[in-house]
Every structure is written in C-alpha cells, then in structure tokens.
Design a protein that fits this description.
37% helix; 18% strand; elongated
C-alpha cells in the first residue's frame, strides 16, 4: 500500500481504463475522454488546480458515454453509458480511513486507488475508491448496470459493507481536486490484478441506506479495536496468532455495519484461504472455524447497531456572501407548477371515499405526460418527467385497472382534440415515465417499522432498495406517489414521537434524489375537515389528516378533498353533465389547496367522479340551474298537474311541493325551483275555485296530448 500527497510515481501496471472528465456536475461538457492508468488518474487528481467552491470542481467517471442527450441536454445519464471500465465507491461515513480499505484490497492483490474528498478530515474520513476492470462492461443499459452492481457489491463486501448507496448509481460521476481553503487530497494505492481477474471473491453486499453511512455511529467499536484489518489478516496468515485477530475482525466487520450472516461468510472464507499456515496446528484452526458463529453473534451484540440507529447528521455552516445576497432570488421549483414543490413531501387528505387515490393518479399522469386533464396548473406548461407510484392498498390487477381507465379516457380526449400523433406521443410518455411498486399485504414493507425494542425507526433496508430501483429509472426530478400513508407506516398516527420519525422518513425519500418530490394520501377523521364545505376550508386543509398534526404541519403543500352534500349539488351544479343520479350518489368533490409554504394560497375547485375518472365541474348560475331543471323535468310536472285537472282537482303550490312521488322523481329542492319556473313561464297558472283560491292548472296542454297514430287509436 502506498500513500501519496504530492506526486505519483510512474505506474508498473500497464492496464489502462477509459476515463470521462466532466467540466461540472451538469454533465453537459466533456473536458477529456481517454484511456489512463490508475497512476495517471492519481497524477490528474493531485495536479488539479484549486478552485473557489465545490461546484467549480470537475468530475470523473470510469466509463465511456455515447452521444444521446437527456431531456436536460446532459451527456451523463444512465441510458447514455456505453462502456464501464471501473467501479467508483463513495464513502462519507466518517469512521473508516482510506488507508484501511486500501490495505484490505492490497491483501487480496486488487488494483485500486483511493483519494480523499474536500470535506475529509482526520476525525471525519471521507474518500472515493477507484477499482479498475480488465474487461469493460458492455451491452444494453440493464446488462451494464447489473454487472456493475455485481462488482460494486463485491468491493463493498471486501471493505466491510460501508459503501454509500450512490456508489451503485450507473452514471454518477465524482468530484476531484481541491478547494482554495482546503488541504490537498491524499491518495493511496494498492497494486495487483483487476477486480474481474481476481478469484475466490466473496458474494456481493448491497449498500446501506442514506443516513446510516454504512456504520454504527453510536458504537464505540472503532476506537476500542486496536490495529487495522490488514494486521489482523497478516497475523492469521503467518500461522502465529488466530484467536485474538479473529475476534478483532468479527468486531470490526460488525461495527462497520456488515450483517452477521455476511460477516460469518467473510471470516470463514478468510480462514479457508490461510488454512495451510495452520497445518502444524489443525486442532486450533478447527476450533476457531467452529466458533465463528458464536464470535460473530457476540461481536454483533457488543459492537453492532444499537437500535434505533442514530446516524450522525451532516452539518454544514453556510455563510451569506455580500456579493450574493442581492442577486435575484430564485423562484420556488415545482414538478407541477404551483402545486408540487420539489425536495419535500405533499399531502392529499380527505375522508373515506373522497376520491383521493384517483386524484393522486391524475397528478402522476399530469407529471408523466404533461397533459393536464383536470386543468390543475391553470394552463401553465407541465414538463413531462418520471413518476413512481408506491401502492399499499390495492392489488396489481385493481391498481392497473384504475390507472388504465384514466389513461384510456385521456388518450381519447387527446385523440379527439389534437389527433393521432399527439395521442400516440401521450402513450409513449406513459411507457417512458410511469412505473408502480405494489407493496400491498407485504410484511415489513412500510417506510418505518418497529425494532426489537418496539421503537419506531426508519425502514432503511426497504427505503434503500426502493431508491435504488427508482435511480435505475431516473436519478433526478422524480414524482413519487404513496397511497395511503396509514398503510405505509406502523404504530399509532396519534403518537407524536412516531409521527416525527415518519415525517423524517418522508422527507428523506423526497430529498434523496435531486429536484424530486413525494405526494402521499392520508385519511382524515376530523369532523371539521371531512366535508370540506366550510368557508375556512383552505385552513382546514392544512390540518386535514388523522392523528398527529405533524404530518400536515411539515408538508410543503396540502390538498384536501371532501364530497359535498346533495342539497349543495342541487343548488349549484345540477344540469348539463350533472344528473339527478349524480345528485343522489353525491359524485361531486371539493378540492382545496390550502397551504403552500412561501407561496400564495390556491383556490377551490370541484370535480365530478364518473366511471372512475375525475372531471372538472363549475358552479352554475341560478338561471342555468333552473333552465336545466326545467328542460329535464317539465313534462313530469305538467303531466301530473294535467292528470289532476282532468278529474277536477286543482292542486296548490304547497301541495305540489309536498308530493312525495314528485319529490322522489325530481328532488325536493329541484321541485320547488321547477314550480316557480313553470309559473314564471306560464306553463301553469293560478285559477279561482270555491275550494282553493290559489289552485294551479296547466295552460301549456298541447305538448302533453299525444297525437293519434295512423290507425286512429
């Protein structure tokens, strides 16, 4: 193992790998793209000119990219990776030094280079590891990604399972060099074979989730375990000592966060590898081999994660520079203009069967295709982008049916209004941008879980796997839908401590991918917020969720859905597309977008549910409502009055209003409006009788008398 701070020596290894050097993190400009040895890459890192801030640094990637551009005009994206020539490992855990991992790889005769990052300190180690491949990985994107993840997982196993999740991202590039006010980078080298030439490699290990940093930061193990892994391995290999170094190794692996079963496999493989050194003392070797399980379990209890795992927060003190504070203020960034802000979670709350799930599906389709079927974004252009639905309530078949109803309805609308080309493009965007993950009925599949001490903790393993799957689709600008929140968490929603963990888990998922956001549906049991009918419903929306108010208080954007009553539908919507059946079924829901942090409040809107699809509806004027009622029910009313007139009965206005049969057919409120309209238009008129001076009779009789057919009947 070699450590360098200034100048690298010429490499003895002839193998060179392809390196892409990007000018900045946008990935739009390649400064260099050529084959270099690891020694030449080391020299490049050490000779890089210092810059003022991190965003000015260049980035490197051990891969070759094609000519395809992302929608952000970037060369660096997963679909454009054509060859992978090496593996990059990122470590920000702050416990393990770069020299230690290089010692481990040198003991396995693996060619590698490690360099420290600008945030590295003695007390808080941070570094990147570059491991070269003899044979480049080629093929389609999925094939390259799978092979790269395999080798990345092997390296992660060798170094103790401490790799950050980002290490497994196919196209992610890494900063290198130094800042003006920071120490220069340190580099460390191990020499040997490429990772794909090495035999007897362990099984791959997945990365730890963000926030865990690959190690147990509560454990005092690293400070209490003397020496280094390489010293332990050398003692076992020499045939002099076995018990103490073996105990230290199991403790070291578990303290780094390697699961017990994987630690057992690693330690047994190490013993097998050096079995020859113990030919003169096979009894001791056999004894130690048989005790690996017990040693590992004991080490895990002593040095393993202490639940709940408490990660070390990343603290960064930022200053406001004088030449920056008067620069134009950047506007809030949205995935859906004015509705869904990035790097936060939003909440859709409502009572049972208030169409929350369908509304969430509409939001996802709007983002995926740019087609705003509900007019939510007020004619503002929506940029299409990737969406993922996390479904906890419906089966695959049911969720597919519900989404297909929306897709087919929108496809027909686009086809009718804009033609086949636009409709087909709509389908292409659906295929490209919309994915779903069904977690319904799966044990321990929530974003939080209970540990052995019955404490609510983030479900790091599931979140890590979920984010890895999303990154395989897109590494930024993803809208994640979660339906419903109550099935994605555990414990009581009234527990503020548990809710605090949920809030942090939601924010972690929303902020793990740049410019992304999460939208979750939440059932409400609060009386004031159920109907959404009050004049203060905008404020109600901010707290319209069951359980702890923390869920709503920390959401960046809150929506509330509430179905409105029959009487309100009759008064304000009846007519046109809203039929008497819609009135009876109460198919109209009110949407309030009552709280958008740092932005204006949004107005109230109304939608009608018909055939599994929501459609915008608007208030009708009194005249429009009356006209619609008259059009639909004129004949019913006049026929009833005419029949009574024929037998000498002239009903009063109050008698008609109280007629149960007419009220059932027309609706009580509609019946009153229809009688007034009939009087105004003189379809019926007042007559004087000895019994009732305000009795009514039909004047417009012609339309009620059927013409005889040709037979004269």
């Amino acid at each position: 193992m070699e450590r360098r701070k200034k100048q690298a020596q010429p490499s003895k290894i002839e193998n060179s790998i392809f390196v892409s050097i990007f000018r900045n993190k946008s990935g739009k400009v390649l400064d260099r793209a050529e084959r270099l040895t690891l020694d030449e890459i080391e020299k490049l890192i050490l000779d890089e000119a210092p810059v003022a801030k991190k965003d000015d640094q260049r980035l490197l990637k051990l891969a070759k990219f094609g000519d395809s551009l992302s929608r952000h005009k970037s060369i660096r994206h997963d679909d454009n990776v054509v060859e992978v020539h090496g593996i990059e490992i990122d470590y920000d855990g702050g416990l393990v030094n770069a020299s230690e991992v290089i010692q481990i790889l040198q003991s396995r005769n693996i060619e590698a280079l490690a360099y420290t990052t600008t945030s590295n300190t003695t007390d808080n180690p941070r570094w990147r590891l570059l491991v070269s491949l003899q044979t480049p990985l080629i093929g389609d994107k999925n094939n390259i990604k799978e092979k790269r993840s395999y080798y990345c997982g092997i390296i992660n196993t060798l170094i103790g399972g401490i790799a950050e999740r980002e290490s497994f991202t196919l196209s992610l590039a890494y900063f290198f060099g130094r800042l003006n006010d920071k120490s220069p980078p340190e580099t460390y080298r191990s020499r040997g074979q490429c990772i794909d030439e090495t035999v007897d490699l362990p099984n791959p290990t997945n990365s730890r989730a963000r926030g865990v940093s690959g190690a147990n930061t509560d454990s005092p193990a690293p400070a209490r375990i003397k020496g280094s892994p390489i010293e332990d391995i050398q003692q076992i290999a020499s045939g002099e000592h076995i018990r103490s170094p073996l105990l230290r190794l199991t403790a070291r692996y578990t303290s780094m966060g390697v699961p017990p079963e994987e630690t057992k496999v690693l330690v047994r493989a190490l013993l097998e590898e050096h079995k020859q050194a113990w030919e003169s003392r096979p009894d001791l070797w056999n004894e130690m081999f048989s005790k690996v399980d017990r040693m590992t379990e004991s080490a895990f209890k002593k040095y393993g994660p202490n639940e709940p795992t408490r990660s070390k927060p990343e603290l960064c003190l930022s200053r406001f520079e004088r030449d920056q504070v008067l620069m134009p203020v950047e506007p809030e960034r949205f995935l859906l203009p004015g509705l869904i802000p990035v790097e936060s979670y939003s909440l859709i709350a409502g009572a049972l069967s208030s169409f929350k799930t369908t509304f969430l599906h509409h939001l996802l389709l709007t983002r995926a295709t740019g087609f705003d079927a509900l007019g939510l974004c007020e004619n503002t252009l929506v940029e299409p982008g990737p969406c993922v639905l996390l479904n906890y309530e419906d089966s695959d078949q049911r969720i597919s049916r519900r989404i297909k109803l929306l897709i087919q309805d929108q496809f027909r609308s686009i086809q009718y209004a804009q033609g086949n080309d636009s409709a087909n493009r709509f389908l292409e965007l659906i295929e490209e941008n919309l994915s779903s993950v069904t977690l319904t009925g799966q044990h321990n599949a929530g974003i939080v879980r209970k540990n052995d001490r019955f404490t609510i903790v983030p479900n790091d393993e599931l979140i890590e796997e979920l984010l890895n799957k999303i990154v395989a689709i897109a590494d930024r600008s993803v809208l994640i839908g979660l339906d419903p929140l109550r099935l994605a968490i555990t414990g009581s929603q009234n527990d503020d401590d548990g809710a605090d963990v949920v809030v942090h888990a939601l924010n972690m998922i929303a902020t793990s991918l740049p410019d992304s956001a999460l939208v979750a549906t939440s059932h409400t049991t609060k009386t004031q917020a159920k109907s959404g009918a009050s004049s203060s419903s905008r404020m109600d929306a901010a707290y319209a969720t069951s359980g702890s108010a923390l869920f709503s208080q920390h959401a960046r954007s809150n929506f509330h859905l509430g179905r409105i009553s029959k009487s309100e539908i009759e008064r304000n919507f009846f007519g046109g597309d809203v039929t008497q059946e819609d009135v009876e079924l109460e198919t109209i829901t009110r949407l309030t977008h009552g709280r958008l942090s740092n932005g204006p409040e949004s107005g109230t809107r109304f939608f009608q549910m018909r055939g599994g699809v929501l459609r915008p509806v608007s208030y009708l004027s009194r005249g429009q409502v009356s006209e619609a009622i008259a059009e639909d029910h004129k004949e019913t009313l006049l026929t009833e009055i005419y029949k009574q007139n024929q037998i000498g009965i002239y009903p009063s206005k109050s008698a008609l209003e109280e007629d149960e049969q007419l009220a059932d057919q027309i609706g009580r409120n509609n019946l009153r409006k229809l009688i007034l309209t009939a009087l105004e238009r003189q379809w019926i008129t007042n007559v004087s009788t000895t019994k009732n001076r305000t009795a009514l009779q039909v004047t417009d009789v012609d339309d009620l008398i059927e013409e005889p057919d040709e037979s004269g009947d």
